[in-house]
Specification:
Layout: E1 22-23, H1 36-42, H2 47-51, H3 60-94, E2 111-117, H4 124-135, E3 140-145, E4 150-156, H5 158-162, E5 169-172, H6 175-178, H7 183-187, E6 195-201, H8 209-227, H9 237-242, E7 275-276, H10 287-299, H11 303-310, E8 313-316, E9 322-326, H12 333-345, E10 349-356, E11 358-360, H13 363-370, H14 378-381, E12 390-395, E13 425-429, H15 441-450, E14 473-478, E15 486-487, H16 493-502, E16 507-510, E17 512-513, H17 521-532, E18 537-541, E19 562-567, E20 602-605
């Protein structure tokens, strides 16, 4: 557990002279590491753009192998720094100065690794047991379980990782391996759309929301104080560490996040056959690396950057596994690149990415989705109308007085409580606010799902905009911020889904998302929830960014959700520029996802759909 580091000790976190240690460098004693193509198959990260053959056919593999060696060196430095701190602490305690020290055992000199068992004759459980026997359960987090390889994120000292059996593949986690693919180019755009940063923490570092916030806060503070020039020549630490230059004056930014002892210094090594880590030569920078370098150098000493960093706010998930960084609206891009780089070299961080702002993305729809034959509704004919079912919906808001939802059984409480006696709205969670705007997206979506007209709140009749499950009830979660079109969801995605589940819903409809088509923190938490609750289905709109290939947006890129594209309509809903229900709507987002998966799985009417309209 990380302890709360007093602010007056933070500067000393940056002056651990780690790079001056003559570390024993012997690559032949290290385990086999993941090949570039193997890692790229596991995760879509910046590794592809940094080292991929399509960009650097001659030097990509050489640069990758050199970077792996450098990260081993970095891990050795971090372990050596920790061991030295422990030795100095022991000495000072014996001398009676323990009360003046503030030291945590939490990090233990560990660095992040990817450890894989490529055994084809073992199942996933057996592979996990092999890795767990070396590193321990608390130090592991699942990365991938494929037929030919099972992989985990692991927090480990370099010495333990180097001692892994030859049957395992062990790779230190490069900064580029931590970055969600496309993050550099997204931040480098001329006009940035609003978004947040997230960091997924490595196993063993955090077990609570406060832990995660403190770890991330220490990283941001370290960047701020380094760039403020409070430590003289150390202002280039982030640049040097990220670009694998070994440190400008022998210090290590990577070691800046664990509480030190007083006057931490590293003794010279007399081990034969050793040399300074910073003297290891790396292949020359490529064009992409030069872009990183120019951007990071621009931030050094920038007052605009310092001001922006001081305005950052940090939140975290309740399980302490991830933190979120809310950024000032006017933050400049080289400050963002600096923050991403600093997070990527922090040994507590395993993954970094974007959380883009999300936006909201029937009579004819009934027969199209049920049979595809005009006016034939076989589900309704069999009595499958949604009766006795609850569907959860999250959206901009819901006008509860609309005739398709109105109730005569008393007021509907907007406090998250459940009242199954209501005709339609059995739960309303006012997370963002408690109403919909005129013509609001949420009222339209709920009407499409389960609207059923009633003129008095009791007796029902067929209206022109009855929903596809007209007799179902709704558990509504309001995520709309006025009429802006932008939505706000809980950081903890279980909190979003659990409300409807408690109301009896086993389906949650989410007709919202972003244009980013990668796999990030939201998708991870949605997938984890659905894996743990296999009687629950999350249905997400593919998005409105078509017709280009690869336009499907987050969070419809989740692996365990059902992603839905939009088809054209028919009958009275068809217009002159439509071809019919067998055709995709032009705006409907297409697959594949950024990592090559097929999405969406299903299409349904989504163009010119008649539904309930909000008129508050």
């Amino acid at each position: 557990m990380p302890s709360s580091t007093p602010s007056n000790l933070l500067p000393s976190l940056l002056v651990v002279a780690v790079a001056a240690v003559a570390t024993s460098i012997n690559s032949t004693t290290r385990p086999n590491h993941l090949q570039l193509d193997d890692f790229d198959r596991l995760l879509s990260t910046e590794v592809k753009d940094e080292f991929g053959r399509q960009h650097h056919p001659a030097t990509g593999i050489d640069r990758y192998n050199a970077a792996i060696d450098y990260e081993w060196d970095r891990a050795e430095r971090i372990e050596a720094a920790h061991d030295n701190r422990r030795r100095r602490l022991s000495t000072k305690r014996r001398a009676g100065y323990a009360d003046e020290l503030h030291v945590s055992n939490h990090e233990g000199g560990v660095s992040p690794f990817v450890v894989c068992d490529p055994s084809r004759n073992k199942n996933g459980h057996a592979c996990r047991s092999t890795i767990e026997a070396v590193f321990g359960d608390d130090a592991m987090m699942t990365l991938s379980n494929e037929q030919d390889m099972t992989c985990y994120y692991v927090s480990s000292t370099s010495s333990r990782a180097a001692s892994a059996p030859s049957s395992l593949v062990v790779s230190p986690l490069l900064p580029e391996m931590k970055m969600q693919e496309g993050i550099f180019d997204y931040v480098d755009k001329e006009e940035l759309e609003p978004f947040h940063l997230y960091s997924m923490l490595c196993p063993g570092h955090s077990s609570s929301k406060e832990d995660a916030r403190l770890i991330t806060l220490n990283i941001v503070d370290a960047v701020h104080e380094t760039y403020a020039g409070e430590f003289g020549d150390e202002r280039h630490l982030v640049v040097d560490e990220f670009l694998r230059r070994g440190g400008s004056s022998g210090s290590s930014f990577s070691s800046a996040f664990s509480p030190p002892t007083a006057n931490d210094e590293m003794p010279p090594s007399t081990t034969p056959g050793t040399r300074y880590v910073r003297e290891r030569s790396l292949p020359a920078d490529n064009d992409r690396r030069l872009r990183w370098s120019r951007s990071l150098q621009s931030a050094v000493g920038s007052q605009e950057c310092l001001d922006a960093l001081s305005l950052i706010s940090i939140d975290a998930t309740s399980d302490g596994q991830a933190s979120f960084i809310d950024l000032p609206d006017d933050i400049i891009k080289f400050c963002l690149h600096t923050l991403v780089a600093a997070l990527s070299i922090a040994p507590q961080v395993c993954s970094i990415g974007l959380v883009p702002e999300i936006q909201a993305t029937n009579l004819e729809a009934q027969w199209i989705s049920q049979s595809g034959v005009t006016e034939e509704r076989p589900f309704f004919d069999l009595g499958l109308t949604g009766k006795d079912q609850v569907v959860a919906v999250s959206d901009s808001g819901l006008e509860i007085d609309n005739c398709y939802f109105v109730n005569d059984g008393g007021d509907i409480r907007k406090d998250g409580s459940v009242d199954m006696s209501q005709r339609k709205v059995v739960q309303y969670v006012p997370f963002a606010d408690s109403e919909d705007y005129r013509g609001g997206h949420g009222t339209h979506v709920v009407g499409t799902v389960l609207g059923h007209r009633s003129d008095n709140g009791q007796s029902e009749r067929d209206g022109a905009a009855n929903g596809v499950a007209k007799d179902a009830k709704v558990a509504f979660f309001d995520i709309g911020r006025g009429s802006s079109g932008y939505l706000s969801t809980p950081r903890d995605k279980a909190g979003l889904l659990n409300y409807g589940r408690r109301a009896g819903a086993r389906i949650h409809s989410a007709s919202w998302g972003s244009e980013y088509n990668g796999y990030g923190i939201d998708e991870y938490y949605f997938d984890r929830y659905l894996h743990s609750n296999d009687d629950f289905l999350l249905v997400i709109a593919a998005g409105n960014s078509g017709p280009s290939r690869g336009s499907i947006g987050s969070p419809a890129t989740s692996k365990n959700c059902l992603s839905i594209g939009a088809s054209q309509s028919a009958g009275g809903d068809i217009t002159s520029n439509m071809d019919g229900p067998e055709f995709l709507a032009r705006f409907s987002s297409r697959g594949p996802t950024r990592d090559g998966r097929t999405k969406p799985e299903v299409v349904a009417p989504g163009f010119y759909i008649k539904s309930a309209g909000a008129q508050p």
